[in-house]
Amino acid sequence: MIFPIVVVMFIIETVLLFGSDVLHFDYVQPILERGWEPVWKVVYPNGITQPFGETIALAMFWPDVKNREKITKITFLATLLAGFMITGFDFLAILVYGDLFSRFLYPLYTLLSMISIGKFIENLQMFGVMYFFMTALIKNVVNLLVALRGIQQLTKMKDYRVLVIPAAAIALFLGMTMSKNIAEHIYFQHYKILVPYFWVPMFLVLPAILLIVTWTRQKLRK
């Protein structure tokens, strides 16, 4: 349900930005002016772990899927579409801001502030806030559900629902106390702690080990 809304927002935003005459295609030139090194620095480890690495959480729902043959196809298409949307939003931000794009915490929100058509259609940041709230809600619900189901499997509990309120309270407490502001959360908690010590092992190293072990077992059985 969220994805169609995001697609519609992307199309509307693109049309309105074109109508506002704020897109500068010369900002994307020259391509790869400093080679591939700056690209790889952005891609790994931060770019690949968020948001693509986080999708490993969806593997917790795979055992409940009726048609498991479609899991690979659907996962691939979803990842491809997500990558396209992220690339599209970033491309629009570069067309508008150029090198300043990398300094913004929320490029989508900032882009919406640039829309101005006839001094009538403007100040659309509220739609960006709505988008953030919807996607953040879905993401938090999925992560919380995955964590609770993981605890249920590890502890052999019959029902994880008894943990919903305590887990939500802990998540709220951590969210309110981990960082003093969003800049500290992103540039310190995220880049310095979460990515190297939690996300890379959980999203890249551990799945790779499990893949190798599973592949080896299948070969030995044959």
From TrEMBL:
Pfam families: Spore_permease
Membrane topology category: Multi-pass membrane protein
Swiss-Prot/TrEMBL GO biological process terms: spore germination
Domain of life: Bacteria
Annotated keywords: Germination, Membrane, Transmembrane, Transmembrane helix, Transport
InterPro entries assigned to the protein according to its UniProt record, in alphabetical order: Spore_GerAB (IPR004761)
Regions that span the bilayer: 74-97, 127-148, 160-178, 198-216
Presence of keyword Secreted: no
Keyword Protein biosynthesis in annotation: no
Intracellular or extracellular location(s): Membrane
Similarity-based family: Belongs to the amino acid-polyamine-organocation (APC) superfamily. Spore germination protein (SGP) (TC 2.A.3.9) family.
Protein name, as recorded: Spore germination family protein
Protein source organism: Paenibacillus macerans (Bacillus macerans)
